[in-house]
Amino acid sequence: MSDWTIDKMAGHCGARLTGVRLETANQSALEQMRAALFEHGVIVIPDQHLSPEAHITLAEFFGPIDVNRFFTPVATHPMIAEVRTAPEQAAVIGGTWHTDHSYDAAPAMCSILSAQTLPPFGGDTHFASMSAACAALSPGLRKMLEGVQAWHSDGSFADSKVGIDSAQDAFRDPVLHPALIKHPVTGAPCIYVNGDFTTHFEGWSVEESAPLLTYLYAFVTQPIFTARVVWEPGMVAIWDNRLVQHYATADYSGHARLMHRITVQGVPLDAA
Predict the structure, then answer these.
(1) Domain that residue 263 falls in
(2) Residue 94 confidence (pLDDT)
(3) Residue 272 lies in a domain
């Protein structure tokens, strides 16, 4: 048995884990942490202050690292991406609801964010459970979505004004994913469309897709499905990109913020 204490953060997603140092956690503790991630979608682990080396080791417990091709890497550790906000920025990276790497054929399994420099207030991250949202769909809409795939594209990065590298060789062709996926480990059905990277349904025009996608984006981010992470110095957050979407709050203008992020490779997604 490990010494984790696990406290739910909200009704449908999120848990706070305390009692173990990640840098010295044994295999049993790490496996319990992973189980908590699959159960709650996002977990936060306070007061860790991970070194870059420990951050990489933690990520490799979950699987091979998926280096993001758009973010600026940490100079000494290129497997780690910088999520940096300058004091003069009014918008922030991730400041809309989205799922990391849904534009890839095998989207990232999880993302691991380690707090480095925090503003004196604000900068919270919101998470929304895609499995809870899926369970709340009407039977008719769920039946329709079970037969639909959607296109995802990294094209939104081309117009980014928040420090994303939009070099042309970073972009890839759009990819198709089911609108309702089955979690690769637990089998939980989840809604898998997001406002940043989903462009339209397969066989539908962009205009035809827009009303239903707009409805789904609003439906899945209802407050009842969400949890809010209030960052603390040294905190680590880990989320499963198949189970949750997230949103970074841009309410600390005039202050700097720096987070280190690693994403872990995932697998192609099957329909629910």
Answers:
(1) 5-267
(2) 80
(3) no
pLDDT for residue 177 is more than 60: yes
Query: According to the model, what pLDDT value does residue 166 have?
Result: 57
CATH of the domain at 123: 3.60.130.10
pLDDT above 50 (res 130): yes
Quick check: pTM over 0.90?
Answer: yes
pLDDT in tens, 53-88: 999 999 999 999 998 887 888 999 999 999 999 999
Angle at 98 between CA 96 and CA 170, to 5 degrees: 100
Total of domains in the chain: 1
Residues 6 or more apart whose CB falls under 8 angstroms from that of 226 comprise 10, 12, 13, 126, 127, 128, 129
Euclidean distance between the first and the last CA atom of the chain, given in angstroms as a whole number: 34
Residue 101, sorted as left (phi over 0), alpha (psi -120 to 50) or beta, turns out to be left
